[in-house]
Amino acid sequence: MSADWLKPYMPRSLYARAALILVLPVVVVLLVVGIAFLQKHLEDVTEQMTRAASREVLLVVGVMEGAETQQEALAAARTDMQSLSMTASFLGINEEPMIGQRRWYDFIAPRVEADLRALLPDIEGVALPSGQEARLYINTDLGLLQLKFDRRRLSPAAPHQLIVTMVFFAVVMTTISFLYMRNQLRPITRLAEAAQAFGRGRVVPYSPGGAIEVRAAGSAFLDMRARIERQMEQRTMMLSGVSHDLRTPLTRLKLGLSMLPEDEAAPLKQDVDEMQLLLDSFLEFSQGTTEGSPETVEPIALIEQIVKDACRAGHVVALVSVEGEGTIALRPTAMRRAVENLIGNAVRYGERADISLSITPKSMRIRVEDDGPGIPPEQRSEAIKPFSRLDPARNQNRGSGVGLGLAIVSDIARAHGGVLRLSKSERLGGLCADIIIGR
After folding, report:
1. How far apart are CA 428 and CA 67, in angstroms?
2. What residues of the chain score a pLDDT lower than 50?
3. Which residues 6+ apart lie within 8 Å of 281 measured at CB?
4. Quick check: helix, strand or coil at residue 257?
5. Cβ burial, residue 240 (10 Å; 0-12/13-18/19+)
6. Is 245 exposed, middle or buried (0-12, 13-18, 19+ CB in 10 A)?
7. Measured between alpha carbons, how far is residue 138 from residues 69, 78, 125, 147 in Å?
8. Which of these, 73, 157, 186, 422, is most buried using a 10 Å CB contact count?
9. CA distances (Å), 271 to each of 192, 232, 252, 281, in order?
10. In 342-430, which ranges are E strands?
11. Given its phi and psi angles, is residue 352 left (phi above 0), alpha (psi -120 to 50 degrees) or beta?
12. Which tens digit of pLDDT belongs to each residue from 2-19?
């Protein structure tokens, strides 16, 4: 049987789930022990004690039978009542029984009253107040008889003490367990924070701690982080080195082509320019996710500045909407490069670019829309791969590239712990590119 129906009701955090695993058995044990104690012990003992007290009451009432006056009845039963530690009196004609209020935690009183009414048919009322005294009101031929005796003869004294003791020590031990559990979960929380920060492009100090399994996971994370950093550094150095080393022969080619006739050198110069563009794209791709350190910035000010710079460059760019406010940890240079790449693609394949910014307590979304031909849904996942060119879909006549623009944006979004999503613009009809980053 599947337990998927239970998932929406389960807590999401590890601490809450551990607390549930800890508290639930304690509650179940308390309930089981409490119910078993009440049913198997208290009720049986109470029934026996109530039956014995009822026989004593019947003895006293039986002795009073045959008396002609109330005083004679009380005198006849005086010796028996002294032996049974009871006191008796008759209520007046207009006098009502004093039942009083029971203690709210006296959960055995209803059972005592039920047993007494079953064993004493002539009983009129049962008073089990908060004191130690019990009062029974019994109808007789001479009037309403009031009998007083010790409440402890009807049920065990303070039967709630066991439950109170159980609950008290359960709370104490659960509190101690919670404190210990928090110390055990703290290393897991530190590991999660370090992994989350690294996923967003930040390296925070972390040292493994806690149980053996948690230490093993922490050590594996540190090894993985070191390997990823080495791979990123090697990729950056390789691409930067290749781009740098090829600039010198390209410069010599340009110098040599400048000495040739224009009609002969023009096609070769075009090839050299394309190679130069390719090298610049390689260098930009290698530096895209590592340029700058994370800083706490105001996204609104950053986007407004990017829009102003794009407008000064002659592009039709507008900031159409801003929702929310606040700061977020970003690499400003890398994020600027990502937004500028999206704007460049938008104005290359369309006429205009509209930018919107949305900030919520959990995430930030930068949206760039254009009025170009867009990208078909089946090609959007391919479009963000490096060196992928979808010129037939994006109108090759409007511009050219090496297929790294969206790849750079996707890399920068992932370096910030976010994602790049492509869709169709509902406003302009072209491409809609969203950079979504968690806060």
Report:
1. 108
2. 1, 393-400
3. 401, 402, 404
4. helix
5. middle
6. exposed
7. 16, 17, 7, 8
8. 73
9. 50, 30, 14, 15
10. 353-359, 363-370, 419-424
11. beta
12. 556 767 767 777 777 777
Residue labelled with tokens 């599947």: 2
Structural domains in the chain, sorted by start = 4-157 (3.30.450.300), 292-438 (3.30.565.10)
pLDDT at 189: 86
Give me the residues paired with residue 367 across strands: 356, 434
Which pLDDT tens digit goes with each residue over 158-205?
Answer: 656 667 777 888 888 888 888 888 888 888 888 988 888 887 667 788
> And the tokens for 317?
């760019």
Strands (E), 291-346: 295-297, 317-323, 328-330
Distance CA 176, CA 179 (A): 5
At 365 the pLDDT is 94
Helix axes 332-349, 405-415, angle to 10 degrees: 150
First to last CA, the chain: 39
By three-state DSSP, how is residue 359 classified? strand
In degrees, rounded to 5, the angle at the alpha carbon of residue 9 between the alpha carbons of residues 8 and 12 is: 75
**DSSP string across 53-117:** HHHHHHHHHHHHTT-SSHHHHHHHTHHHHHHTT-EEEE--TTPPP---PPPTT-TTHHHHHHHHH
Q: How far apart are CA 373 and CA 420, in angstroms?
A: 19
177 contact partners, CB below 8 Å, separation of at least 6 = 22
Please give the pLDDT value at position 155: 81
Nearest to 402 by CA among 351, 341, 353, 347: 341
- 364: helix, coil or strand? strand
Residue that is written with structure tokens 């260098």 in the block: 283
What pTM value is reported for the model? 0.51
Token pair 């950053």 is found at: 302
Question: 434 CB contacts (<8 Å, ≥6 apart)?
Answer: 365, 366, 367, 420, 421, 422, 423
Strands (E), 151-194: none
Q: Using alpha carbons only, give the angle 361, 318, 309 rounded to the nearest 5 degrees.
A: 95
Q: Which long-range contacts (CB under 8 A, 24 or more apart) does 238-247 make?
A: 238/286, 239/282, 239/283, 239/285, 239/286, 240/283, 240/286, 240/287, 242/279, 242/282, 243/279, 243/280, 243/282, 243/283, 243/286, 244/283, 246/275, 246/279, 247/279
Burial 4-21 (b: 16+ CB within 10 A, else e): eeeeeeeeeeeeeebbee
Q: What are the beta bridge partners of residue 145?
A: 90, 138
Q: What count of residues does the chain have?
A: 439
